Amino acid sequence: MDALYTAVATATHGREGRAVSSDGRIDLALALPAEMGGTGQGSNPEQLFAAGYAACFGSALGVVGRQAKVDVSDAAVTAEVGIGKQGEGFALKVTLRVELPDTVDAETGRKLVEQAHQVCPYSNATRGNIPVELVIE
């Protein structure tokens, strides 16, 4: 694959540090979530992954919608990224909640969401690695 764009970010001090993109547009304090024993006084990698996945999946949905000549421009995607213990380490799970416009019927909506799941780079990267549940609301 030839990359069309490469994002670059540096994190220091792990979950209790800072994440900064090479262009400076992202500059975030990081903190372990309170649910995991931290202060929760900063962003965390799961939030960043959720934001990226939601945005990317929304774009993929727009692509397949345009190809099918179905207007999904008012769709909203919410990504829930869970982290938990798995064996000696940790693992992730994702739920993608897709809210489609009322003008899209259930069958068409399901097909478009499933097609977007085949097109989205985040879905392709996670497929077979972490469970991803698709929920249409």
Structure notes:
The strands form two sheets. This protein has a three-stranded antiparallel β-sheet, with no helix packed on it. The chain starts with 8 loop residues before the first strand and ends with a strand. The chain has helices at residues 45-67, 106-119, 121-126; strands at residues 9-12, 18-21, 27-29, 76-86, 89-99, 132-136. With 137 residues, it is of the alpha+beta class.
List its salient traits:
137 residues; alpha+beta; three-stranded mixed sheet; 6 strands
Helix content: 25-40%
So how many helices?
3
Mean pLDDT: 97
- The helix-and-strand class reads alpha+beta
Q: Strand portion, in percent?
A: 25-35%
Query: Rg to the nearest angstrom?
Result: 17 Å
**Distance between termini?**
34 Å
What's the total count of β strands? 6
Low-confidence stretches: none
Reading side by side through the largest sheet, how are the strands ordered? 1-2-3
Give the ordered list of helices and strands: EEEHEEHHE
As an assembly, this protein is single chain
Please outline the helices and strands.
Blueprint: E1 9-12, E2 18-21, E3 27-29, H1 45-67, E4 76-86, E5 89-99, H2 106-119, H3 121-126, E6 132-136
Parallel strand pairs: 5-6
Antiparallel strand pairs: 1-2, 2-3, 4-5
Summary?
The protein has 137 residues and is of the alpha+beta class. Helix content is 31%, strand content 28%. The longest helix has 23 residues, at 45-67.
